[in-house]
UniProtKB/TrEMBL annotation, chains A, B:
Pfam families (alphabetical): CBS (PF00571), MgtE (PF01769), MgtE_N (PF03448)
GO cellular component, one term: plasma membrane
Places the protein is found: Cell membrane; Membrane
Designated name of the protein: Magnesium transporter MgtE
GO molecular function, one term: magnesium ion transmembrane transporter activity
Keyword annotations: CBS domain, Cell membrane, Magnesium, Membrane, Metal-binding, Transmembrane, Transmembrane helix, Transport
Major location category of this protein: membrane
Listed SUPFAM superfamilies: CBS-domain pair (SSF54631), MgtE membrane domain-like (SSF161093), MgtE N-terminal domain-like (SSF158791)
Protein source organism: Clostridium porci
InterPro entries on file: CBS_dom, CBS_dom_sf, Mg_transptr_MgtE_intracell_dom, MgtE_N_sf, MgtE_transporter, SLC41_membr_dom, SLC41_membr_dom_sf
Record keyword Protein biosynthesis present: no
PANTHER family reported in the protein's UniProt record: MAGNESIUM TRANSPORTER MGTE (PTHR43773)
Length: 452, 452
């Protein structure tokens, strides 16, 4: 697209100090692309370029910048300029920024905002993290039942310019209780003299401030919404969530699930911007827990020392058994965790899921067992009992792995834990232990070895 | 929310044959909730309830139903009813349905659509799967430069009711070349006599029919869009993508990545609706490949039979080493694969990434090594060389795992393969082989055993 070409050209204009031309180019650009350009600049030039922006564009671009750059700009501009930005930002963007800025900068920002804005920001800062309240904004169009379509339009014309969306308007009574919604499409499809009361939809899909942002995202997806009203526990409208923020939430939630499912504590920031120590810290806890668990597996193995001292060949099948078991189990747990995350699988489906996984496990296990059997009878002719031990262990491992892999995430959900913990790493460790005990027990029985 | 309560009540009304009341209730409901209700019904009642819906609601609900139910309804209604539905559906919904229906049903559907609709559907059916063309729809508002705001509004009032979105309007010349966009917000904020030409934005963010749907989703996320125009290679407007479809694409793409990263072929349909044989097929291919790879690892191990025959204790550390290596490697590969999927990490970042992972690997490896060392000197006093073998192998394994884990996904991207293949399962198998060779080589050297 055009933005990549532009970046280079803009940089040239800046370096050759053709400021007037640069300013003109910037005024035609999208705020997202301007922010991407500013991110490439050193700290001095950041402020130079930022000051070239018109007042309206300045706060739009500001909202798109990473918090370090926002902090740098705040520290480089006058109180007057700061006040203009802060009062122009949408409350959700202001709150996102303030949550990450150091205390002294927060103080200066709040000092330079109007008392209305300050009050609103303080209220919004108090909603719990990842709640509907924490991602909503306060800039919406509120109408009254008794207005006509014509009055609604002239109200939107007067007040709509600062609103995050004008396309869905919210109808409230004097106590701000939400009575209905009306879209601009509805307004456009009805005559000017029609009353809002007659065209508004009273079956409002809404969220409560304390609802989890994942539920909010799910509701957007299910109903194909553009915005969603958020009410307090007395059903009074306090804000709206818009679809652009939900798109970010969805991406963020998926990333968190990927990280959790690979045994990491989810990181707050993108990979390239996270320091080595933080990355190490996020990864260490689970590695440690899993390492200690696999030491226990090692301890179990020690019980069978006599067995693999007698037949060292037994050891060479360990990677195949544990890897296959781990993979088979992770496949199931991944499908179930994801199915629950998108709302397809519910804890009440547990019996259906187990039955399905048992059948899949049997089918897959038998086929893998067959391949193994063919290989083993060719490689180790005459050692039928050894072949049988390996093949039976493999089939049992696959079936057990699939069953564990589907039960644990659902069980976690039932006990209000995060199912994403029950993913590949933990499943692999558990299946390792189970499959090795099974394997050596079988070996001891079938090959009549000591141990177990 | 209210929908769960309603389902039960509706079922009661249906069972007690209070059809008039049921019809009234349905008329007040959201199409998504009605579809959820119909999905719960047997095939006979499906048609009974469906026929209760008003004509406008009927096609909205129809678009929300799964394809089996759509097929059942199509087979149960008259040509006249069918024709009304088909011509009322948005092209993208019609195309989604037709792609999954059996040929004879497709024929009947096309026979009952107007020739305009038929032509449009045939054109849309030809766009490649997962392209911008395959997710776009044809129902948008097209304006002309020479219109005034007032004319634009009256055009929208006349033609807007059937459009998927009216909030972004597209300005085209006589050849349908896209000249600009204007939002209803822009229209509302300008006086009635202003010309569209003067208020339209000519820097249009757009997609080409052949662009991948992932790129399209990325553009929506980056710019916070509500809709995106899709043009052909001659820059003529052919359709638009709306944000509700993009939300589905994002969820679908994330699910596919989860499945691929757990060594499965992505499934076309949700888990509970996928048959056992299909599930087994999707999982078998990779399990087989990985099983054969881990047989090779086993083969390598066989070379060191003498070593673990001499010191069987060596075997008990295998699970700890391979599990920790696998986990450490999957952590890195997961972060990199996800980072590339959301566009944060690019192949050109490869050196930065490797340097970061090397440091993280060293830090994490040293700490895990320390914990292990303390445990080993307590459990096996006097066996310093054994302790050293295990600890050094562990540290080296973690560092190597992190390096492999970050290089392989980026390499896959560079060679235009899917990075998601280079996830936990494959990384674990590779790291297993490397760490075991390392471990036994070290053991043979340090403990002066035969083999290697």
């Amino acid at each position: 697209m055009q933005e990549n070409v532009n970046l280079k050209k803009l940089m040239e204009l800046l370096e050759s100090r053709q400021f007037r031309l640069l300013k003109e180019k910037l005024s035609e650009m999208n705020e997202v692309d301007i922010a991407a350009f500013i991110e490439e600049l050193d700290s001095e030039r950041t402020v130079v370029v930022y000051r070239m922006l018109s007042k309206e564009l300045a706060s739009d671009v500001f909202a798109c910048l990473p918090v370090e750059t926002q902090e740098h700009i705040i520290n480089s501009i006058t109180d007057y300029e700061l006040s203009a930005i802060v009062n122009d930002l949408f409350v959700d963007d202001a709150v996102d920024m303030l949550e990450e800025l150091p205390a002294n900068v927060v103080k200066r920002v709040l000092k330079n905002s109007t008392s209305d804005t300050r009050q609103l920001i303080n209220q919004f800062l108090q909603y719990p993290e990842n709640s509907a309240g924490s991602i909503m904004t306060a800039e919406y169009v509120g109408l009254k039942k008794a207005m006509t379509v014509k009055e609604a339009f002239s109200y939107i014309r007067r007040h709509g310019v600062d609103k995050e969306t004008i396309y869905t308007c919210y109808v409230m009574d004097a106590k701000r209780t939400l009575e209905g919604v009306v879209t601009v499409k509805d307004l456009l499809m009805h005559p000017y003299e029609e009353m809002i009361e007659n065209i508004m939809d009273t079956h409002v899909i809404k969220a409560i401030t304390t609802d989890d942002q994942e539920e909010v995202a799910e509701r957007f997806r299910k109903y194909g919404l553009l915005s969603l009203p958020v009410v307090d526990h007395e059903d009074r409208l306090v804000g709206i969530v818009t679809v652009d923020d939900v798109v970010d939430v969805m991406e963020q939630e998926a990333t968190e699930d990927f990280e959790k499912m690979a045994a990491m504590i989810p990181s707050e920031r993108p990979y390239l911007k996270t320091g080595v120590v933080t990355l190490a810290k996020n990864r260490l806890a689970w590695l440690l827990i899993l390492m200690i668990s696999s030491m226990i597996t090692g301890g179990i193995l020690a019980k069978y020392e006599a067995a693999f001292a007698a037949i060292p060949l037994l050891v060479t099948f360990i990677p195949m058994l544990t890897d296959t078991g781990g993979n088979a189990g992770s496949q199931s747990s991944t499908m179930i965790i994801r199915g629950m995350a998108v709302g397809e699988i519910k804890p009440s489906d547990i019996l259906r899921v187990i039955w399905k996984e048992l059948q899949v496990g049997l089918l897959v296990g038998m086929l893998l067992g067959l391949v193994n059997y063919l290989r083993l009878v060719i490689l180790y002719p005459g050692q039928e009992l050894l072949c049988l031990t390996v093949v039976l262990s493999l089939i049992a491992t696959v079936i057990i792995a699939k069953t564990i892999g589907c039960i644990l995430p659902i069980a976690a959900q039932i006990f209000h834990m995060d199912p994403a913990i029950m993913a590949a790493p933990l499943i692999t460790t558990i299946v390792d232990a189970v499959s090795l005990v099974l394997y050596f027990q079988l070996a001891c029985r079938l090959l009549q070895l000591n141990g177990g």
